[in-house]
Design goal:
about 375 residues, alpha/beta, Peroxisomal Thiolase, Chain A, domain 1, twelve-stranded mixed β-sheet, two-stranded antiparallel sheet, 11 helices, 16 strands, globular
Length: about 375
């Protein structure tokens, strides 16, 4: 049974939701010099940072998340005094940067702050429970699927779904070790892509049942999931195809009906070809010909928040009837033959069915389908 999305808020290097979408339409890139850790030691020299505050200040992920939770709850008109409201937060790294600071300096660290219960309860007093899901870069999509289950089963009147991550030295060091060269920006699906960069960010959505009496931004048809455990980091075409097919099976939609794909598109050597091959097999193979866009060239890889940032962009495509280009893409990779990438300028479109992709390390995949409400 479909659910509804009644509120949505994001924070990226380009600003809040409306600011981010406007910058995406202009094809802007939010990358700048790395402000976290020692670039030379990490072998990472750029990142997509949020705001001008100290990037080394601890617990930044929670502060960004709290802003989004409060904003999305206001949009939806949630009232925890008369509604049963739960919260699910997807993340890849939680507050790992604070743990790193504790390990390096010996400063005190309360373990409960690894999770986001305190900040969510401060932003939305009266929320019944807060659960943190650490599920790699598709964590927000998995939280979205669980939220839909909760409202469908009548376990909650509304569920706030959040996602948040900021820079950590351990993750920066990891991408610095595998980068083929010095990455200046993310170039999703580009023939000359040279690796991924981290983007700080947070997002929050409010999921409610179809009986909701208030304003709805979109219908959440459903989310397909897979966990193939193919490799610690390398994606698998078969596993990603399973998540796509699961989404269409669960929602009784046909892949040929997809008008727009908001892709995962990390700009890495392996992810982009694999995602293209999966789209060609499942969507194009069924007769579909959707437009394809992606946001990481503009906002970087926002890790656990990536899926929900993509959903917010999809919601704005529905509302405004326009699709932003893939920033950083100049010439599509050969595996993208036949895919209709939006490049160079926005394209007018009134989509009826949007596919949102999110794939994570270990083959943890989530594919969400959205429709106009």
């Amino acid at each position: 049974m479909p659910a509804l999305i009644a509120g949505s808020a994001v924070r990226t290097c380009l600003g809040a939701g409306a600011e981010t979408f406007a910058a995406l339409l202009r094809g802007e890139c939010g990358a700048g010099p790395l402000r976290h850790g020692d670039p030379a030691r990490l072998n990472v020299f750029a990142g997509y940072h949020v705001g001008a505050d100290d990037p080394n200040r601890p617990f930044r992920a929670g502060r960004l998340l709290a802003e989004c939770v409060a904003e999305a709850a206001r949009q939806a008109g949630l009232d925890t005094t008369r509604q049963r409201v739960a919260a699910l937060v997807g993340t890849g790294l939680r507050e790992l940067s604070a743990v790193e600071d504790w390990a390096l300096t010996g400063s005190s660290f309360p373990p409960r702050r690894l999770h986001f219960g305190d900040v969510v309860r401060e932003a939305l007093p009266g929320v019944s429970e807060v659960i943190t899901i650490s599920n790699a870069c598709s964590a927000g999509g998995h939280a979205l699927a669980l939220a839909q289950d909760l409202v469908e089963l009548g376990e909650a009147d509304a569920v706030v779904v959040g996602g948040a991550d900021t820079m950590t030295q351990s993750m920066l060091a990891m991408i610095g070790r595998v980068a083929p060269g010095r990455t200046e920006r993310v170039r999703p699906f580009d023939r000359d892509r040279d690796g991924v960069l981290l983007g700080e960010g947070a997002a929050a959505l409010v999921v409610v049942a179809e009986s909701w009496q208030g304003r709805a931004l979109a219908r959440l048809a459903g989310t397909g999931l897979s966990c193939d455990a193919h490799h610690q980091t390398a994606p698998d075409v078969a596993g990603i195809c399973r998540s796509m097919r699961d989404a269409f099976h669960r929602t009784d939609r046909d892949p040929s009906a997809v008008d727009l794909v908001v892709a995962h598109g990390t700009g890495t050597e392996l992810n982009d070809p694999v995602e293209c091959e999966a789209l060609r097999e499942v969507v194009l193979g069924a007769g579909g010909a959707p437009l394809v866009t992606g946001v990481k060239g503009s906002v970087g890889h926002t890790s656990g928040g990536a899926s929900l940032v993509n959903v917010d962009v999809a919601l704005r495509c529905l509302a405004e009837g326009v699709v932003p280009p893939v920033a950083g893409q100049r010439e599509a990779l050969k595996e993208g033959d036949g895919l209709r990438f939006v490049v160079g300028a926005p394209v007018p479109l009134r989509p009826e069915l949007i596919q949102v992709n999110a794939f994570g390390f270990g083959g943890v995949n989530a594919v969400t389908l959205l429709e106009a409400a």
